[in-house]
Structure formats: structure tokens, C-alpha cells
Amino acid sequence: MANLIMFGILAAVIICSAVMCVFTTRIMRSATFMLFVLLGVAGLYFLLDYTYLGATQIAVYAGGVTMIFVFAIQLVSKRSLQGTIERIKLSRAVYGGLLSVVGFAVVALVLLKNQFMYVAMSVPDKELPIEGIGKALVGAGKYQYILPFEFISVFLLACIIGGLVIARKEEQE
Length: 173
Hints:
The chain is an all-alpha fold.
């Protein structure tokens, strides 16, 4: 019963923080709410007794959010950080909501058509050892993810370099 209550609390924190992250107009608040979302997900890992994944979630993603803070300070003008508010047009909000509903409908149709839910419920409950997850993440064989992992790391490095170039150009002008 305590696990269910804790799950409810973590789910509420994650959902509320995610909504606030999307709807706030200040970049620092948005990054802070995203940090709460990531910490809530780490809490779910700890609740499932996946301490390694929980610690990794905190270490990697909390560090990532710290980088977002640094880039927000470097890349955004001082007026934006001090609270200049951009108004959202109603037509853009309606368009975004409509796109969200269409996206949700597509995902729901794919899940129902392919019967992923029934397959997931038919799989017996057995714990996957963390060693298997680690080998899948850094293995080079079939259904292992070292190549996409390396592509993502190169892509993130390119994003960091691009952000620094943009920040440096603004300082020179």
C-alpha cells in the first residue's frame, strides 16, 4: 500500500511539473520544472528497486539540466531571463492542441492495431537483471545499442559546440 501511495505522489509530481515546464514562459523556471520531472522519474526507479538506474537518472539527467541552466544563461538575453513575457496567440494554442490530439490518436491507433497491450500483459512477470540492460546498452551485436548511443553523444557534442558559437557571436556584436 505504501508503494502505491508513493507512486501516486511521484506521478502527481511528474505530471504537474511536466505541465508547468511546458506552460511557463520563463526559461529558468522551465528548466527547474524539468529537473523535478527527471527527479520524479528517478524516484520511480528507486521505487522499483532499480537503484542503479535511479542513480544514473540523477547523475546523468541532473547534470544535463545543469547544462541547460548554463546554456540558458549564456544564450538567452538578459531581458528574457528577467521576465519579459511573450504572448501566445490563441490560434497557435489551438493549432498545438489539435496537433497533440492527432498525435495521441495516431499513437493510440498503433497500440490498438498491433495489440501491444495484450502482448505486454501476456509476458510473465520476471525481473530483468541489470547486467542484461547494461549489455544491451553498450553491446555491438544485434538488438544492442552502442552505435545509436555513440551517434547521440556526437550529436549532443555538436549541439554544445553550436550553442557556444552562437553565444560567442552575440558577445562580439
